[in-house]
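RECORD TYPE: protein structure
NAME: Alpha-ketoacid dehydrogenase subunit beta
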Amino acid sequence: MAEINLVEAVNLALAHELARDEAVVLLGEDIGANGGVFRATVGLQQRFGAGRVIDTPLAETAIVGTAIGMAAMGLRPVAEIQFSGFLYPALDHLINHAARLRNRTRGRLACPLVVRTPCGGGIHAPEHHSESPEAMLAHTPGLRVVMPSSPARAYGLLLAAIRDPDPVMFLEPTRMYRLFRQEVADDGEALPLDVCFTLRSGSDLTLVSWGAMLHETQAAADALAAEGVSAEVIDVATLKPLDTATILESVARTGRCVIVHEAARTAGLGAEIAACLADEGLYSLLAPVQRVTGYDTVMPLSRLENQYLPSVERIVAAARKTLEAS
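PREDICTED:
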């Protein structure tokens, strides 16, 4: 069992599925000869050939459109979009075709497609390289949206996404690619989709987050523990469909909830979770739900990113606010 980082876990999962299933093909810009802009596909074209790891033109619409046709005809394509900010030209295909194909054909055709893309800030990249589009994608019926927060979950969830019979948006937090390493066994064991993972048990409040923000959220839980506060930490992982049962069960125990995400605040996924708690968990709440989010602006450049991204201090302050409420 090797200690690997998140981008290496993605590579490991892709290699496993290419070897296991001849229907799996990869396509995207610079993914073959160059191994991808973040090296997520390094070595795969050399191992499996240019017919299965396909370098494409710089055309996101063509990449996703071609992948949908491949999926409809029985292949299992994994398409890479270099940055999530480049995804928008392909939304027509994703929303109007990939997400609707099973319904449109009354089950005669399926679309076992995975679209991988880096997302989020924290690497001081220019505009269009730091997007957090999960709420927009989750709003689309027929699309499953997944975002891992560790190497082990990246490996297991990507296996599950490739094996799923319907389209999956697999959002990879860029900041997490090389942030830390953990032991990951290349055993082919997929993790379940559509469920949250409870990373830490607690009794005083529930911290809910996903993707790169789990790093700050868990650090905040450590800081709260030093103050005698027991925080439960939930990794949403699959953002659509949302496992509301796990969140509701946690808040029923703790009575308080803080939701953390780096996407802009307005109409973010945190609002949907807060609405779910109001609809189905209101009588469990001892205090208003708090949200710690990015701002309703474009991600700023360079060092200003640190002012935009939720910090440990902001999360702890929100936790204290909900703990002080009667």
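COMMENT: The chain has two domains: 2-184, 197-324.
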